[in-house]
Amino acid sequence: MPTAARLGAVALSAAVLTGTAAPAFASSASTGASLSASPSASPVSIPVGLYGTSDPTYDGVWRQGLSLLALHSQGVTPAASAVDWLTGQQCADGGWPSYDADPAKGCAAATEDTNATSAAVQALAALGGHDDAVSKAVAWYRKVQNADGGWSYNPGSASDANSTGLVVSALAAAKADPASVARGGRTALDGLHGFQLGCSAAAAEQGAFAYQPDKSGKLVANDAASAQAALATGSGFLPVPVGTAAASTATAASGTTACADSEQAAAQYLARRLGSGQEHLTSQLAGASATPDYASTAWAALSLAGTGHVDQARKAVDWLSANSAGWARGAGASADAVLILSAHATGVDPTRFGAANLVAQLEAAGPAPAATAAAGPTASTTAASTATAEKSSSSFNPWWLIGVGLVAGAGIGMYISFNRSRRRA
């Protein structure tokens, strides 16, 4: 969940995620970076067909998948070059890397990324016509599943809640029952539930997810992990339909104990956390002040809407509409994408998101679409003004550098979430 290029994935080490409430999303997710970054020019040439202007090394596939999903939710038909770029990144064995600068050379197994693969699978499943690519990805997920039923960011490491949740969503989007994908008798859902705090936890933490167990094996509630993993508790996936199961909204708001119900317990936890934080989540690294976690907030809204609590989700989206403009400018395409997806899920118009037309901004950040929605604004009405702002800023977030440094120092694998913020938007 890590979520604004990953919106939902700013690179953070497992140590940071298990020891603090820091964001777990890719560039901003989110996997997404939860903190705004000062724009900086990308040192890398941006491939034709790719959305965004920042260095795609860590989040190229992630932000492309989210961008295609977001535009699809708005009735936009993406350019063939955008879809071709994504399919061209797939490795021979079915997984996707975070980014492959030279696909002709083939993928190195160590670069394959379960989170990027999830975004790609959900996008191609939504677009339709890519059954072979999706089936290969499902086969790859089966091959790299861990013995606990879960998945890590890069195969070969310990499972984490964000990656496992994203994989479950990808499996559901691909119409592969997560309960049937198992390793050693442990299913994907077993792996996911293994990170969730249950009825034995303190009342305020019941339903939350830990990123990973701490060194003693204890599960510690993590908002970024909870925001992204919760969508998968009901086998939800992107794009979340508008107003999914809105009739159940009262359950999350009521505070009624549902600790034995994974889906409702997760929703209640997120609703409590958002309500106690003026409808947004925060993140905090050691020695730093708490700051709004935009990517995690967007993923929390998606998870709440996807589990039927649209009214609760709408409050978070309204907060994002009023407060996320600066973050989105710094985070780029994946931030726009995850904001569009959260707006779509809650019935909010993403073309009037605060002062921004998110759809036009995202269209302007990539190749001209093959077709826009039959009704409503099109990119041509605002692209001229938004393109300049988008192309002059970068979504590369300095949290990536911090995360890489922490990983090197701690000697553990890094996790790229945002939302995602990448992400883990």
Automatic annotation (TrEMBL):
Signal peptide: 1-26
Listed InterPro entries: Terpenoid_cyclase/PrenylTrfase
Keyword Transmembrane helix appears in the UniProt entry: yes
Keywords carried by this UniProt record: Membrane, Signal, Transmembrane, Transmembrane helix
Superkingdom of source: Bacteria
UniProt xrefs under SUPFAM superfamilies: Terpenoid cyclases/Protein prenyltransferases
Transmembrane helix found in the keyword field: yes
Regions that span the bilayer: 399-418
Annotated protein name in UniProt: Prenyltransferase/squalene oxidase repeat-containing protein
